[in-house]
Amino acid sequence: MTKAGVPAAVKPSSSSLYVRQVGRGVPVVFVHGTPSSSFEFRHVMDALAGDHRCLAPDHLGFGQSPKPPDADYRVVAHQRRFGETLDRLDLEPAIFVLHDFGTAIALPWMLAHPRRVRGVLLCNTFLWPAQGPLRWLFGFYSTAFGRWLYRVGNLSAKYLLPSAWGTAKPLDPELHAQYLAPFADRDSRYATAALPGELVGATLAEMEPQSSALGQWPVRAVWGMSDPFLGSRELDRWRQILPGLVVDTVALAGHFVAEEAPETVQRAVRALSARPNVEIQPH
Length: 283
Prior knowledge:
39% of the residues lie in helices and 16% in strands.
């Protein structure tokens, strides 16, 4: 069986997305954020592959997808490309594992196709603009100088990623190098440089009221509690939005909980796939 680390993939053209695929069975769609890719889900995908069809697109500008310098890397463009990719994959009702920007990117397609969603797993994710000190920080990174830091210094993958890591699974130099590899030079970093502005822009503010719509499906969360960016306050916010949300917390995991605590994530996916699929009526 092909391992998710060496995937059977849908290879991209100049503007289409690379899709990591492994396994057969109940479909599971993994949606990454920044500065990451489908790579972060490989251990969870391998653990599920015996009875799940696991698919994880790399957004344009990330992972093994193309990184054109003149592309639109705003969230709305990622949403469109993600939707076009899923439309080509002929999915049965799927479980969606949403990390970081993944909720904002996947939700429009999910709301447009409610019957093709079987369940949702939230992993250190958000659907609202940055607030407090983080709003100031990412506002600075969205300036011309901030974008220059992202591109020239590889600020996101080189510095912010390790700062968001917990202690459940150490980020050793070899593993960090694998996360750095897709952003090898400044011309491969346009996508990471574009997203800080999205954290303080209008798109997330406009989407925030849609967050409660996730409650129409079975939904769970796995949360790394040592995440300095999306910690207990953001988890509490999800609990208020989605009463009865079932949460598995991982005290020592940071932002990249699928990498840091893959066993917990794959158990949560299995809990969702064990439920009977209930057809959702479109609104």
